[in-house]
Amino acid sequence: MQNLDDILEHIGEFDLYQKRAFFLVCLLSAAFAPIYVGVVFLGFIPEHRCLSPGVAELSSRCGWTLEEELNHTIPRGESFTHQCRRYDVDWNATELSCTDPLESFTEHGNRSISLTTCQDGWLYDSSVQSIVSEPSGAFLTTSVFNHISKYPSR
């Protein structure tokens, strides 16, 4: 039975052809390296919170800053929890106070308001962009290439 040295001797040494092929593979790998590691820099998850219908209108009516809006409308707690839950209230109610809007939804000083999951999507920090917060390009290219792939090749 032959060993590896015998097989390598039979097919040839590391000569000019193997050196050219190796150099070409290294060159192509170096050219595509930014694509391979780009997801590390583009795929981070930016700060986000649940989208609550009516909060934007209430915030503009009351003149809240972003910090005030978050203090009044986002449940506090663990970082992961407050990003994935929201108050189960109707923010479009007209009798809401601008100083403490949650007071209208509580009974006799009981500050317990039920929470629900994010049903209307998320709002992302728009000061930074990520492939996580910009999915529209992925959906567009997926649908275009899906449509193109249905045509037979010639």
Overview of this protein structure:
The chain crosses the membrane at residues 21-45. Keywords: Membrane, Transmembrane, Transmembrane helix. The protein is mainly α and 154 residues long. Helices cover 46% and strands 8% of the residues. The protein has 6 helices and 4 strands. The strands form 2 sheets. A two-stranded antiparallel ribbon has the order 1-4. A two-stranded antiparallel sheet has the order 2-3. The longest helix has 27 residues, at 16-42. The model has no long low-confidence stretch (mean pLDDT 77).
Q: What is the number of E strands?
A: 4
- Please report which band the strand proportion falls in: under 5%, 5-15%, 15-25%, 25-35%, 35-45% or over 45%: 5-15%
What class, by secondary structure content?
mainly alpha
String of helices and strands: HHEHHHEEEH
How far the N terminus sits from the C terminus, by CA atoms, comes to 48 Å
Overall shape = elongated
Describe the structure concisely for a colleague.
The chain is built from 6 helices and 4 strands, in the order ααβαααβββα. The protein has 154 residues and is mainly α.
